[in-house]
Description:
The chain is mostly helical. The protein has eight helices and two strands. Helix 2 (87-99) runs antiparallel to helix 8.
Amino acid sequence: MERMWGLLACVGLCLQAAFASAEALPMAARGSLLTDRNPLYVQTAVRAPNSPSLFAGKSGNSLFRPMPVSIRVPSGLGAMPFHDLGPVGQLRALIAQAEAGAKGYDAVQHGADILPSGPPTTLTIAQIYAWIDDTPGQPHAIGRYQFIPPTLRRLVRRMGLKHDTLFSPKMQDQLANLLLYEAGLHKFQSGELDRKAFMNNLAKIWAGLPNDTGQSHYHGFAGNKATMSWVYFDAQMGRIFPG
Length: 243
């Protein structure tokens, strides 16, 4: 009997060691969104987002709920060419139309009194973080998809990016691809999510897009409003994703 209890104790210690090793694994999705490897999906460990919503203060109805520790991420998401003319590239262009206007990848929120030290596409992530930290009290939405600080930091952590990474057009598109995935792009394309629901999810991420009420999901918050109508948004989505 004593030998049995000793054996059980040994097994328990082994299991504890195994769990401890598993918990010590890095949780950032390093490389998973930047690879062309097959199969279509790779098993990836990710951090639950620290920022509940792209827009601070609106976490109540946020798209971003705590995510599972491990999810299946499409391996090609980050590897999509940043000049992709397919549906995903067209969707990014539609979002950019609502968010950044003509300045595109070098857009900085118009309410920022102190601009970064150079065009965003010439700066590293570290330089953008320094601009954010050195200029409190002003808007800091930046780039083609108008990433705000909490979202930018969360995506950078989740992708395991180094701070000397250039905030290039390609990198901005990869960050946007991750937001599209979180909005349910893969479910929409597979038919698990209908177009209206997907569009409403996108509106929860980008304030320039309308939801099905015709207004921004963040209408009136920090001056946000939709920059296109629901009719236009729906028509463009129908064109990009026919059927």
